[in-house]
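INTERNAL AUDIT FORM
Audit reference: QA-55
Scope: verify that the stored structure record matches its stored sequence.
Auditor: D.O.
Record contents follow.
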Amino acid sequence: MALDDHAEELASALGVDKEEVKGDLEKLVEYSVPIDEAKDSLRRKYGDGGGGEPSARELAEISTADSAVTVRGVVLTVGKRSIRYQGDDLVIREGELADESGTIAYTAWEAFDLSPGDTVEIVGAGVREWEGNPELNLGSETTVGIDDEPLDVAYEVGGDTHLSALAPGDRGVALDVQVAEVEQKTIDGRDGETEILSGVFADETGRLPFTDWDPHGEIEEGASVGIENAYVREFRGVPSVNVSEFSTVNALDRAVETDDGAPRMSVREAVATEGLFDVEVTGNVLAVRDGSGLIQRCPECGRVVQKGQCRSHGDVDGEDDLRVKAIVDDGTDSLTAVLGTDLTSEVYGGGIEAAREAARDAMDQEVVADDIRETIVGREFRVRGTLSVDDYGANLEATEFAAVDDDPTERARGLLDAADGAAADGGTIDDVSSDEAAGDGAGEPQRGDE
């Protein structure tokens, strides 16, 4: 059924104007609301024929069961970006609102005059679910007025934050960062081939990937920049900073301090985050999984080819590559460390050509993976990279993979000394941190993505 038909059916059932319903329906669908959910939202909104005064609510009380509400709060952030619907470009405002009870995200489909720090009264805001939480939708039926009596809230106004505090869904973000890595790319965008910038931002709290959809000249490697009106999406399981044509980017007259190291965590702590762009763990390699060593990839999409078959492109002539999928366990949990071509070459002691030659001599491609197993299984390694966690387990795309050269005898002595100290203080050996005790634990191998 076409959207126009959905609008006509809904308007007839509710006894309200079709064009008004169609406009609301278009906006909800454009914002990725499934059509059935959008219709349910409008049934709640117009269920009484459009009459009745929207109920006044504190922000913490609002739920997705509400249709339209009246709220009073302080505008914390205002972001601005463009979206495209049926060939038309729409500019929306989005951000966060706060009162004494809490905060809530909002999207404004009309050009309301909102500024960070304003105390506003919003009448007739719609409510929808976004990222599992209620969100206010300000549309043609919403009125927004400035309240002359300021509201005091326990939240910072303006969106100033650090990389470590960002989460997918944040909007109107302001950051001071150093451009750690940047490259120009050509992508197939909504207007055809489009030039973008992508890379890594860093500050004193961490590192995150970014995309600049409207390349700003100030974003160059090594530069320190201040960015206003950025938004955050999820990319490969981690937050990614998005800079748009509405973002402001200024060169800073100071260098933003950064930490070249990654946060060190136990495997359990890392997995519990459900995804980190840069993290370091230390553990023993328990096994090297199938699909390691000399492999073949599809020349079209880069997927691993199984028996000459690509899942996306069918029968292909695969291109040789090297990879390791190693199960790393530190006694608290386990994950799969995935090593790309360069790190695998270091572990193997030779590149793709050396692996090809070994496979030809043995008439068995698996000889490469077997050699890697003999080299790393049973040893302890420090692994740094990007962690993603999904239904198949935890996978760490490694950027560093280095053997731990600590003397195990000295480490054991240190653990015993720590245990003796804990006992003397009235504690037990359990008081020794799991990070210190990481070592010869066992864990079940986990399945990862190809």
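Auditor finding: record pair retrieved intact. The longest helix spans residues 408-424.
Action required: none
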